[in-house]
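Follow-up to my earlier ticket, as requested here are the two runs.
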Amino acid sequence: MGSLAVLVGAIVQGGVGFGLGLVAAPVLTMLAPDLMPGAIQVVNMTLPLFTLAVEWRRVDWRGLGFALLGRLPGSAIAAVIVVYVSVYTRGIFVAVMVLIAVVLTARALSVPRNGYTITSAGFVSGITGTATGIGGPPIALVYQNAKGPQIRATLAMFFFLSAAQSLVILQLVGELPGQALLVGGVLIVPMVLGFLVSGPLRRYLDGGKVRVAVLTVAALSAVGLIVQNVITAL
């Protein structure tokens, strides 16, 4: 089930620039909460390399700098959350973040793209990305009106550097078990398959229908995660 979630997430992210964490993180958190967010961060760091191999010339380097500037303090706050917040609470946090991301993405809010908004988005992404593995939606909302190649390339570079930063922070605070790295490495296989499938499908699928389906799956996964954590707590 976790491999399938990563496969679907990779197809989505390969096509629109983000979505891997949104789809896969709730499922992986349900299946192996002790290995999150380390396992998904391994995949988050690897997938962008495939996009950058094709579209690296379209990276918005100025915007990327603002985003990374905001992400660093956000990641520091997330490190405190990971160390001092229980796995149960983090599970609920993941679910709530996914639902918020789904609502914001579905509404397609118009956010001006400037230094302040990109830095703010990077800060929020630092918190949610490091603590839960879901850091794409804040940055994607700011870049939603950019052209497809620029969105995918800029988000890919941001995700690569962000995931690497998150892994280092998780290691420093003792929240990156070796098994998380092993599982993350295994999940690279369905991730690669998903990315390969996303290429041919990108030009044929109706983005609107795919978007609705993905948001629905993500929302159902988040609700399932909440139910699962509540039942476990009882």
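Run two:
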Amino acid sequence: MSVLDLYLKKHYLNKAQFAAACNCTEAALDALIQAQLLPAPSYVVTENARIFSAVFGEMDAVDTDAGEYFHPANTVWYNKAQAAIATHGDQAAQLFRQNFMQEFIDAITELNATLWHVQDSFTSDGTAISAGLQTRADFAWQHFLMGTFSLCVANPVSAAAIARKEILQEKLGALTDHGNKRIYSIAEAKDLLPLVDAYAQAAMWFSPAEYPRCSRKRLVDDLRPRLLAAIAAQSAV
């Protein structure tokens, strides 16, 4: 058993476990994914010890059980899909997509006003830029279906939760040169630490296979000690 295998078993459900959690068959899951009513698995581990990540592509997966892996929060999306089917029948997929995208746009609108100016989607006075918002919503929808957010968002139970993680990452990246900035004033460090903590809470931990390249490493685990060191060093002067 590898550390990757332990991570997947701790944080994800294999296909049989996910089907059981949804009280349905594996074939029913496949049908919903095909109909664009459920995210695809975030990880697929093959029999020849390779793992395919929705974000990072193909990597080694020695001593890791083969299978398709789903975030447990996807049971929420399964229930939403079933409700959409019961209410809208053949139009369920279209309404499911519309609801997701509208919730995402509403969340981005609120986050622009309260957290970070989303420059491609709003002018400086808060007027929406329709094309920018639509591009963001389209991008979010495609990555939702790919299983991306079930890999990188700690609790991806809504489009709003997904949007919050995305904007936290965007703000933190902009203020720190994507985690590459090395020197901070004590004021900058103190302002950034709550943002790092908020992002750490919103973001997934990422698997050992992809961790060295992930945003959490750059923007939480590498950045937080740097900020704390800046505060300590300048407070001692």
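The only thing I checked on run two: The beta strands are 13-14, 43-45, 50-53, 57-60, 67-70. Let me know what else you need.
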